Amino acid sequence: MDDAQKHVHCGLSSKDFLEPEKILCAAQLKKGDSVLDVGCGEGQFALAASRIIGDSGTVYAIDLHEPSINILRGRISSEGICNISAFVADARKHIPLGDSVIDVCLMVNVLHGFAANGEIPGVMHEISRIVRKHGWVVVVDFKKTASSAGPPVAIRLAPHEVEDMFKRYDFVAEKTRDVGPYSYLLILVHQ
Fold first, then answer.
1. Rounded Cα gap, residues 185 and 178, in angstroms
2. What is the per-residue pLDDT across 128-142, written as a single tens digit (0 to 9) for each?
3. pTM of the model
4. What are the start-end ranges of the H helices in 54-170?
5. 124: which residues sit within 8 A by CB, 6+ positions away?
6. pLDDT tens figures, 20-48
7. Are the C-beta atoms of 83 and 76 separated by less than 8 Å?
8. Which domains does the chain have, with CATH numbers?
């Protein structure tokens, strides 16, 4: 696939139709968790996660798009938030965290882009490296049906496709549910 056909990993926000607090509650996030938000954008989910996990937890928010990270850093600074570290990183190549340090990895509306671009092996190598055994990945993505929001249906992933993809990296699906008019949530546990 040439660069002109690749899915772009930054763009429109889902803040108009997703409720981060409700989704993170369904994702079983709790006080003290270490959380990685892959493709965090301007930090809608990272900010909500920081409130849930409290001072005893940490959120690592990464994105390729430096302007989005700068916006999140501005909010962290202006609101005096101490439990979020936001940085520019490429999850396809290297996430600058140690092995087995993450309890919960959030992948909100990003997995379909990695799949469309053939980038799953690099991303999953990093995700499986940093998520602890019995930790989990929370995938929130667009239902594989035509809708006014989201990417083309052709690149959307149904939950069973995500389950099959993650099995290769020792993750097992635990829970699936609808989390809005366009989206589903899938929790996958690292074995």
1. 6
2. 999 999 999 999 999
3. 0.91
4. 66-78, 111-116, 120-130, 159-167
5. 165, 166, 168, 169
6. 999 999 999 999 999 999 999 999 999 99
7. no
8. 15-190 (3.40.50.150)
